[in-house]
Design brief:
- With 331 residues, the chain is mainly alpha-helical.
- It is built from 13 helices and five strands.
Length: 331
């Protein structure tokens, strides 16, 4: 009898142990957004900043979630804050501080990627989504708004109804959102494959061996700069997009050989570009990631450091990436 009861309790004990281990793991790597997140849930672009761009808050929270930082408390408060400010057409504004109030001050830079990241964040919180009619209504209207942005000719997503062109990096971010399915999952997979093909066919230029950054005319005559042209060539590796005409390892090595020095110096005049360090981490290039930590040490919390960079810094530390030694060659 005792032996039977013991056997019956084993699954329950395993479940409890698994839950306890998950709880410990979550507690071991808490996300800290001190100076970025307010008590009301708002998340500013910069440390103690006076602007909010929902794109960067969503990007930062999703990166934290993907790499095992416990973003849950921030994500729930942020979702409640943002959903209450979603416009009737399901799009979002950017916000500026007016005294103690966050007031809309600009339209979103791009509706397509912002809608996709918003949907992606909601789907990381299934319990909250199940419990909140407001979140579910937002999710439904956001799906519809995103679908209205598909270019029927090219099969890619347009920036917005006002700017009817498509951006390469935006479409990769839309591709990173996979709509959950309980039935007809084959159709969801087929739509994803069609979008992958459409992105490649629309943006890949076989003559230059590079991706175009936009469908706007004149792309081939624009002088390339670090952003958007050079960053765009590395963006596929951020989202595991298949480089059909390129060897991924060779492509990464060549990019770093050509642009690493320029990237590491960005925080002196522009922004730190922590997303590139995430690509290095995915490529298991810990030396380069450590160089980024060294070169941006003085930029943390400055005007050249955004909430995404802060999350990347914490992700690298979680993954035991150390700042490159002063005598290490990072060029």
């Amino acid at each position: 009898m005792i032996r039977t009861l013991t056997r019956a309790l084993i699954p329950t004990l395993i479940l409890l142990l698994g839950q306890a281990a998950a709880a410990v793991a979550a507690q071991a790597y808490p996300l800290s957004l001190d100076g970025y997140a307010g008590a009301d849930g708002a998340i500013s672009v910069q440390h103690q900043g006076d602007t909010i761009d929902p794109y960067f808050a969503l990007q930062a929270l999703l990166l934290a979630h993907e790499f095992g930082l416990d973003a849950g408390p921030y994500a729930r408060r942020w979702a409640d804050w943002l959903v209450s400010r979603q416009k009737p057409d399901a799009t979002f504004d950017r916000f500026c501080r007016a005294g103690p109030v966050w007031a809309p001050c600009k339209t979103a830079d791009a509706d397509d990627t912002l809608l996709a990241l918003w949907l992606k964040l909601l789907d990381t919180m299934p319990e909250g989504l199940a419990q909140s009619p407001v979140w579910r209504k937002s999710r439904d209207s956001s799906v519809q708004a995103l679908q209205r942005l598909i270019d029927p000719q090219r099969g890619v997503y347009l920036v917005s109804p006002v700017y009817p062109h498509a951006l390469f990096m935006d479409n990769l971010e839309v591709l990173s959102y996979s709509q959950p399915c309980q039935r007809d999952c084959g159709q969801v997979d087929a739509r994803r494959r069609r979008l992958e093909r459409s992105i490649h066919d629309t943006f890949w230029n076989p003559d230059t061996g590079r991706f175009l950054v936009s469908t706007q005319p004149g792309q081939l005559t624009v002088a390339p700069t670090f952003y958007p042209e050079y960053v765009a060539q590395l963006y596929p590796m951020l989202f595991s997009f298949k480089l059909q005409a390129l060897d991924q390892r060779v492509h990464y090595r060549d990019w770093m050989r050509q642009h690493r020095a320029s990237w590491l110096s960005q925080s002196k005049t522009d922004f730190a570009w922590g997303l590139v360090a995430i690509v290095a981490l995915k490529a298991r290039d810990f030396e380069t990631a450590g160089c980024w930590l060294r070169y941006t040490a003085g930029a943390r919390g400055s005007a050249h450091w955004i909430v995404t960079d802060e999350v990347v810094h914490q992700i690298l530390r979680k993954n035991k990436v150390s700042e490159a030694a002063s005598d290490a060659s990072c060029r």
